[in-house]
Design brief:
single chain; about 110 residues; alpha+beta; Fumarylacetoacetate hydrolase, domain 2; 3 helices; 4 strands; globular
């Protein structure tokens, strides 16, 4: 899975929202649609590890600074996407992002 997630120009992110504005969410809808078809739709409360626990565990191993990002797992519905497809995803109460997959570079 690493090669599917970690490559040049992967992991696009929307604007960072400080915890002072968003709070520390423990519940709320998270979703992903591909070309308008919902592929993932769940609630933060359904994650195996609560977000607060994830931050706590990570901070025991590395120093976390403002602006650092922690990537969690995903809800059910993981699948491949390809060039030209548009993905829209978001977290309720925080924001959403839309990206279109480009052509591979050689």
């Amino acid at each position: 899975w690493d090669w599917s997630k970690a490559f040049d120009r992967s992991a696009p992110c929307g604007p960072l929202v400080p915890a002072q504005k968003s709070g520390h969410p423990s519940k709320g809808r998270i979703w992903l649609a591909v070309d308008g078809e919902v592929r993932q739709d769940a609630d933060l409360a359904e994650l195996i590890w609560p977000l607060a626990d994830i931050v706590s565990i990570c901070s025991e191993a590395v120093t976390l600074e403002p602006g650092d990002l922690i990537f969690t797992g995903t809800p059910a519905g993981v699948g491949a996407v390809g060039p030209g497809e548009t993905m829209t995803g978001g977290v309720e109460g925080i924001g959403a992002i839309e990206i279109t997959i480009g052509q591979p570079t050689t």
